[in-house]
Amino acid sequence: MTTKKTPDPFSSRRLGVLISGRGSNLQAIIDAIAGGRLEAEIAVVVSNRADAPGLALAKRAGIETVVLDHRAYPSREAYDGKLVGELQARQVWLVCLAGFMRLLSRTFIDAFPGRILNIHPSLLPAFPGLEAQRQAWEHGVKVTGATVHLVTTDLDAGPILLQSAVEVRDDDTPDTLAARILEQEHRLYPEAIALVLDGGVTPLPQR
Ligand code: GRF
């Protein structure tokens, strides 16, 4: 006799990946799972933009995609509530922001306490916000990098899980620097996800 297993919401390794654009970090997660470096399953990829190139990467890998256009919702809370519903309906345990260009409200944060990750292209707390690679280059720092952190309602400010340093070369442009940081992002994100799924991070109370 075979029984269909319902995913246990507290021990599941089901991921929900949120994107807005290119999706190269999504692809790195897909590759890490396929290559046996990350034991997990991507239950769904959600984009707030219908034209996000990353959606095609998900489809190619046979992953369900959902487009939720934020412009169709009257408030951030209304949008986030819908987003939470879509993820919970698929028993998502860990939410991975991968170039998702939206701030999350408490409605969302409280639904996944300590279970939302983000990747950012700088050594936080330096250079939060947009174009972090260019910010670092313009500031003239000699070392920058990538950070995976837990998400709170404050932009790019949650507890840090893993970081990787990247040297800034004299002949770098913002683009060459961003490309080397991206290589590190693709290595770091699957590693951080594995760390959380394996219980290496105790969920912290949210501020
Ligand atoms: C990455 O640089 C990530 O660190 C930042 O947004 C970018 C997303 O790139 N949060 P991609 O869509 O994963 O290629």
List the helices and strands and how they pair.
Layout: E1 14-19, H1 24-34, E2 41-47, H2 54-60, E3 65-67, H3 76-89, E4 94-97, H4 106-111, E5 116-120, H5 132-139, E6 143-150, E7 160-167, H6 174-197
Parallel strand pairs: 1-2, 1-4, 2-3, 4-5
Antiparallel strand pairs: 5-6, 6-7
Helix pairs in contact: 1-6, 5-6
The structure holds 5-O-phosphono-beta-D-ribofuranosylamine.
Provide a brief overview of the structure.
By secondary structure, this protein is an alpha/beta fold. It is 34% helix and 20% strand. α2 (54-60) links the parallel β2 and β3.
Helical fraction equals 25-40%
Mean of all residue-level pLDDT scores: 93
Percentage of residues in DSSP E strands:
15-25%
**Strand order in space, largest sheet:** 3-2-1-4-5-6-7
